[in-house]
Specification:
It contains one helix and 56 strands. By secondary structure, the chain is mostly beta strands. The chain has four domains: 266 residues, 7 Propeller (Methylamine Dehydrogenase, Chain H); 80 residues, Sandwich (Immunoglobulin-like), CATH 2.60.40.1120; 134 residues, Jelly Rolls; 43 residues, no CATH class.
């Protein structure tokens, strides 16, 4: 990738209506009386015709898509009804799993009547005599060596097959696969294999697992890493084998990218939401060269350029479902590997009568345009952490935030001249112009100046370790001042506010409203829900200000909430307008509620940045209950403790602490 500073204008290859961009619908096939599930593709080695292999609630279907504008049903096999079916192929055979206790369906695709098929539940190793029996499974994958991996198996007959991965050799015998072994450390929801390595989505563990399966009798785990929303659904490896991409099958979840060059130290390098705030659920993702093709239940099919895995950029989408939000409707799966280049997708219930639908797409996307740079303070030259960058007037919304080094990376689907807004609470916004070019990286740096009219909370003692020369106040109040701004009521649930902190700070107090006298434990939590600090108070009926003294570290998406079982505090159910900036160091960005406008419990929040006049050392770090993960310098490089230099300590609870170790 070349880094450029000159200008050139490129226009999008294709432009579509609001429900699509850089993808075009060219054909469909609809079913009348059954919903759909997963999809795969197959090419006849004789005729070179292309086929969509579609799972249905009541069976399995084969649709000829060689004429993409006129898909034709070749055959359909009736089977036990089930919401779940998944399909893969080896040679001229399709293999179909289901959770309906029908065993493994094997279909001979050379017989386009569909009459040549088998249901198999028992599998034996002809050499050792070892065997396994299963009647249901959630998913499967077949690698380039003809090994079939059965995921999430179970049995209705009393046997106990592994619900991790069962290894079957379909290359040795396509219709009576040989049993080779299994991996059973965790339940696997979905996965894929390349070479001798399995990449498993262990959904209930919330982790990606990387497993050496070279010895099918004794597979060994190479490494694991949690995924952003802790509900790991599927995983797919990049063509070069250096990165894995995952989905979490939950509302508003992320696509995530991981560097797996060292499986003992898997590193997340990027995460992205296709439609932030929509509550849609990602399902399956597949790597197709430099692109990541993903099915979203109520958002259809999306395409991201992953040529730079640390900066994934969305370049196309087709929203095939009329509704939106959280729910298991619309697109189940998308298959991008047919030789013609068409993309085929299966929808659960998007047909005109609310049943299954096959969609055939043409590609109109190309490589993304990349924008990178850094943001610094105009008076001190220091990196600004947490600045927001937005490219204006793009079809696909985008934004980025500067990291601990003040660096950002983002991009757009199409080239052209764009205005880019740089903003940070406490600073004057700046708008710069960038000329973006497909397949290129443009560098755009920004310098932001302090807004003298905005309070900047910080330590104003020049002798303190955390002295902030830009600070103009030692104490600030923020959030909603009281509960009269909109409708609401007393609430017995466990929701929370979500906020970012750009420096270590103290939440001293807040105002709360109780319906009746009660005892409540108030909690400060990390982004993953770990309790960082808490305090318990006995409340009287009505309004009261309570001392909290929560010590807040630098971090994003932290939580202000209450412990389980506490109830009857007031919250507003409309009218909240996020973000709420407090002293340019704390920003309340939203809530855990699925609906906008809600505001939970904490009113008139009192925030302070206490001056730190202590001398710290690495021994202080060792005394903390949380575990130190790594230390970064101001450029974001991993380093060892270095006296008399500013460094950032990253902990396993997601918190970040800025340290100056003085000797």
């Amino acid at each position: 990738m070349n880094k450029i500073l000159f200008t050139l204008l490129l226009l999008p290859f294709l432009t579509f209506s609001q429900n699509s961009y850089n993808m075009g619908l060219i054909g469909t096939y609809e079913w009348n009386s059954t919903e759909g599930n997963d999809i795969w593709g197959w090419v006849s080695p004789i005729s070179e015709d292309e086929y969509a292999l579609v799972g249905l609630n009541d069976g399995f279907a084969c649709v000829n898509v060689s004429s993409p504008s006129n898909p034709t049903l070749e055959f359909q096999i009736a089977d036990i009804n089930s919401t779940w079916r998944d399909v893969k192929t080896w040679g001229n055979y399709a293999y179909v799993t289901t959770e309906a206790d029908a065993g493994l369906l094997i279909v001979d695709l050379t017989d386009m009547t569909g009459n040549t098929n088998w249901h198999v539940s028992n599998f034996t190793n002809p050499t050792t005599g070892a065997s396994v029996e299963f009647t249901a499974a959630h998913n499967l994958y077949i690698d380039e060596n003809g090994i079939c991996y059965i995921f999430g198996a179970s049995s209705a007959t009393g046997s106990s097959p592994s619900d991790g991965a069962i290894f079957l050799d379909v290359a040795a015998n396509a219709t009576a696969p040989h049993y080779l072994g299994e991996w059973n450390e965790h339940y696997i929801h979905d996965g894929m294999v390349r070479g001798d390595t399995m990449y498993a989505g262990c959904i209930y563990a919330g982790e990606l697992y990387v497993v050496d399966v070279s010895n099918k009798n004794n597979p060994s785990t190479l490494g694991a890493h949690s995924t952003p929303n802790n509900f790991t659904h599927n995983a797919w490896i990049s063509d070069d084998g250096d990165f894995v991409f995952t989905t979490d099958e939950t509302s508003d979840a992320y696509l995530a990218a991981y560097d797996i060059t060292d499986c003992n130290n898997i590193q997340e390098v990027d995460r992205i939401q296709s439609n932030p705030g929509s509550s849609s659920i990602p399902h399956n993702t597949h790597v197709d060269g430099n692109f990541l093709i993903t099915s979203y239940y109520r958002d259809g099919t999306t395409v991201h350029d992953i040529s730079q895995p640390n900066n994934m950029v969305q370049v196309a989408y087709y929203d095939s479902y009329s509704g939106s939000g959280n729910g298991f409707d619309g697109c189940w799966g998308t298959y991008p590997y047919l030789p013609s280049g068409i993309i085929i997708s299966s929808d659960i219930n998007s047909s005109t009568n609310g049943n299954a639908k096959l969609l055939v797409y043409e590609r109109g996307f190309s490589g993304a345009c990349y924008l990178e740079g850094n943001v610094t303070d105009g008076s001190t030259g220091a990196a600004i952490i947490g600045a927001n960058i937005v490219i204006l007037n793009t079809i696909i919304p985008n934004s980025s935030t500067t990291n601990l080094s003040g660096n950002y990376s983002c991009g757009n689907a199409d080239g052209g001249i764009f205005d880019v807004v740089f903003s940070m609470p406490g600073y004057i916004n700046d708008t710069l112009q960038a000329t973006l070019i497909n397949g290129q990286v443009v560098i755009l740096n920004a310098v932001l100046n302090i807004d003298p009219n905005v309070p900047i909370l910080g330590c104003m003692d020049a002798s303190a370790n955390n002295y902030n020369p830009n600070a103009n106040t030692a104490l600030e109040y923020g959030g909603e001042a009281d509960n009269t701004f909109a409708s609401g009521g007393f609430f017995s649930g466990n929701q929370h506010l979500i906020f970012d902190a750009t420096t270590d700070l103290l939440i001293k107090s807040a105002v709360f409203y109780a319906d009746n006298p009660t005892t409540v434990t108030f909690e400060l939590r990390s982004s993953n829900g770990a309790v960082l600090d808490d305090t318990t108070h006995s409340l009287v009926q009505g309004q009261q200000q309570l001392i909290l003294n929560f010590e807040v570290p630098i971090g994003n998406n932290m939580q202000l909430g209450i412990s389980n079982g506490n109830s009857d505090l007031y919250r507003n159910d409309a009218g909240a307008i996020y973000p709420y900036n407090i002293g340019s160091v704390m920003s309340i960005t939203g809530t855990s509620a699925g609906s906008p406008g809600y505001y939970y419990f904490y009113y008139d929040i009192e925030v302070e940045v206490p001056c730190d006049n202590t001398v710290s050392s690495i021994d202080d770090i060792k005394e903390l209950s949380k575990e130190l993960v790594k230390i970064l310098d101001v450029l974001g490089r991993e380093v060892v403790p270095n006296p008399n230099q500013t460094q950032f300590y990253i902990y396993d609870d997601g918190s970040v602490q800025k340290q100056i170790n003085i000797e």
